[in-house]
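ingest -> validate -> predict -> emit
validate: passed (alphabet ok, no gaps, 95 aa)
predict: started
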Amino acid sequence: MNLLIFTLIPGIISFFVMRKEKSSVPEGQVDESPLSGNVLWYVFILCLFAPLIAQAIFYYGWKKRLPKKAKKANNLGWLAILLWIGGSIAINTLF
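emit:
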């Protein structure tokens, strides 16, 4: 049950953050600005809580209209996955 809550809530929040950023770009146009500011931190924190779900939501939601932001969100998702793996290894070796 806790796993569902900890993946479902970040997934829903990720969807709303993705839609908010995507809606700022008019239909048919492409925004080449990089991911920065508060949105960068939102993406990174959400990817830490649910790496694969948040990463997929941001990447596939932004890849046509916001390609640079999509690539950065994808890279942050991979970083979060590496942190999960490193943390898991560290915890297993300590205990």
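The mean pLDDT is 92.
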